[in-house]
Design a protein that fits this description.
By secondary structure, the chain is an alpha/beta fold. The protein folds into two domains: 25-104, Copper amine oxidase-like, N-terminal domain (Copper Amine Oxidase, Chain A, domain 1); 114-341, Zn-dependent exopeptidases (Aminopeptidase, 3-Layer(aba) Sandwich), CATH 3.40.630. The chain is 38% helix and 27% strand. The chain contains nine helices and 16 strands. Strands 12-9-13-16-14-15 form a six-stranded mixed sheet, with helices on both faces. Strands 2-3-4-5-6 form a five-stranded antiparallel sheet, covered by helices on one side. A hairpin with a 3-residue loop joins β5 and β6. α4 (146-164) crosses α9. The longest helix has 34 residues, at 243-276. The radius of gyration is 32 Å and the shape is rod-shaped. Bound molecules: zinc ion. Residues 123-124, 130, 146, 206 line the site of zinc ion.
């Protein structure tokens, strides 16, 4: 019954075509063969149901002669007219064929993420000495200032990184004893020119103090998302003006940065532990509203090298060999992080 109706329909169509009531086939039709050649897709054809499918990789597009849409992966419809030519071959309207080809064409490999720069931020400087440790040792006054320790370790770290990563930028917020505001530090890091698949790592270096003179050990801090700025994604760069979409994009970026900051913190802490763990207990990873890294649009951590207020640790922090081990520990952590990040 259906078959008879269908034959009737075809007969009517042929009749109308013969009368010139239907337009001749569009010259800009694309044949099935052309789509398959262009995309490398394969064809499945069910002659009983007159249903075909083009598939390549994980994409499968089902179509039926006479229908005005095709189905991508059994869920998404795309507009296309499929018709049978006089020779029985299938052809697709030009625009619909382009939509099919776009979906079947081999995708470019996902872009490789890259750490383009490491920004080292020695805390304090100039008129801001940071924390100061004063100890009386064998009757002599011994004083140590945070701004000096962190600058020393930062220089050592920069040299290690420059040797290991000649193709990456190693940038210091300050390379001498000068005062910089927190805004100036993050502005410097945010100004490093990047390709869209590149990132900077922000590593701020500090030393600790405590009223409890027994407090000691290294810590690495990262920033929780709620303290991050809300406009990480610049609307003019992504071409999105819908504030709702921007909020979602920003949340995604924040999450990404937080995960990466945690990973960077873990790697650096592990690196420090293997270098100085026998001397300085690992106080762990902390999350806080750290002012220094709040405005940085990148994976950001803050390393506390130890307590200047602990006499033994203060003596260590005045020792070149110990500072080199701290730098080496941070360096190893960064190298491991970069290897995982770019994997
Ligand atoms: Zn500090």
């Amino acid at each position: 019954m259906f078959r008879i109706m269908k034959l009737c329909a075809i007969a009517v169509t042929l009749f109308l075509f013969a009368l010139g009531a239907l337009p001749a086939a569009d010259a800009r039709e694309t044949t099935l063969d052309q789509i398959m050649t262009e995309t490398g897709a394969r064809l499945q054809w069910d002659p009983m149901r007159e249903v075909g499918a083009l598939w390549r990789g994980n994409t499968r597009i089902s179509f039926r002669p006479g229908a005005d849409s095709a189905l991508v992966n059994a869920s998404e419809q795309i507009a296309v007219r499929v018709s049978r030519g006089e020779d029985g071959g299938l052809s697709f309207d030009h625009d619909g064929a382009e939509r099919i080809i776009a979906r079947l064409r081999p995708q470019a490999a996902p872009e490789q993420r890259r750490v383009a720069a490491i920004f080292i931020d020695p805390g304090h400087g100039g008129r801001d000495p940071g924390t100061i440790g004063r100890h009386r040792i064998d009757g002599e006054l011994f004083e140590i200032q945070e701004k000096q320790i962190v600058l020393d370790v930062s220089h050592r770290l920069a040299r290690l990184l420059e040797t290991a990563f000649p193709d990456r930028q190693v940038v210091m917020s300050r390379s001498d004893d000068r005062f910089l505001t927190l805004e100036q530090r993050t502005a410097l890091a945010n100004a490093i020119p990047l390709e869209h698949n590149e990132t900077v790592l922000f590593v701020s270096i500090h030393a600790n103090a405590s009223l409890n003179s027994r407090a000691r050990g290294v810590e690495v801090w990262y920033l929780t998302p709620e303290f991050r700025r809300r406009d990480l994604i610049d609307p003019s760069r992504v071409g999105v003006s819908d504030p709702g979409v921007l909020t979602i994009l920003n949340t995604m970026r924040e999450e990404e940065f937080t995960i990466e900051s945690v990973l960077l913190a873990r790697n650096i802490l592990a690196g420090l532990y293997s270098e100085v763990g026998a001397h300085s207990p690992n106080r762990g990873i902390k999350q806080e509203a750290w002012y220094v890294v709040r405005e940085a649009r990148m994976p950001s951590v803050l390393v506390e090298l130890g307590f200047v207020t602990n006499q033994e640790e203060a003596l260590n922090l005045a020792d070149d060999a110990y500072l080199q081990r701290l730098a080496h520990g941070i360096y190893n952590g960064i190298v491991n992080f970069v290897a995982g990040f770019e994997n």
